[in-house]
Amino acid sequence: MGSLSGKNAVVTGSTSGIGLAYARAFAAAGANVVINGFGSAEDIEKERAKIEADFGGKAIYSPADMTKPAEIAGMIALGEKTFGSVDVLVNNAGIQFVSPIEEFPPEKWDQIIAINLSSAFHAIRAAVPGMKKKGWGRIINTASAHSLVASPFKSAYVSAKHGIAGLTKTVALEVATHKITCNCISPGYVWTPLVEKQIPDTMKARNLTREQVINDVLLDAQPTKEFVTSEQVAALALFLCSDDAAQITGTNLSIDGGWTAE
Question: Considering 22, 61, 157, 189, which one is annotated as catalytic?
């Protein structure tokens, strides 16, 4: 068993992409996991069952809607009831919408702030009492390079991710004497199925080759000209859960190919 043997993790937005990589990394390290997110029931059950089959621990699914505080609290309660505790919380759920600010739909602003920022507050609020009682906890928030720098037309997303960075610092200070850490990870462009599916449309729209889309559009901001992988992000999260990372708290850890160094 790995470094999280006997521990239990909740990961929001974990039915695919980075979130699923987190869940699988924690399960591989010995944790039971609660996964959460949208998708077809068949696909979600396939991923849930695969986690159990591949790693031997327990995996359950919470359909909690990240715009609904009561459902978020219920997700934490489900983890505590099923496994006895929630030791690791990863706030990963997020959506994106791109528009000039004067045309930005107010309902999209509200939705992005709710899912990308407020959901993390509600989950942390629900999980901290149990972590304090147990005297151990790890809270990890998926931020973004956009928690440190901005891009045009992403007012809600950039605001939410800057907010996540501030929330992370505040929570870290509040729980510092309880052996609970709170950090955020700020990836750049990560190679996920969602990103891959955007390439053909961009090739057509801009009359570019696949390589030009990847290097001149997607990776323009990343000096390494390489994507971050979901597994690299998950490996960093796993390290933050280790005893070696016990004094790393309140930090914003970039994993962005040098994007924010410029």
Answer: 157
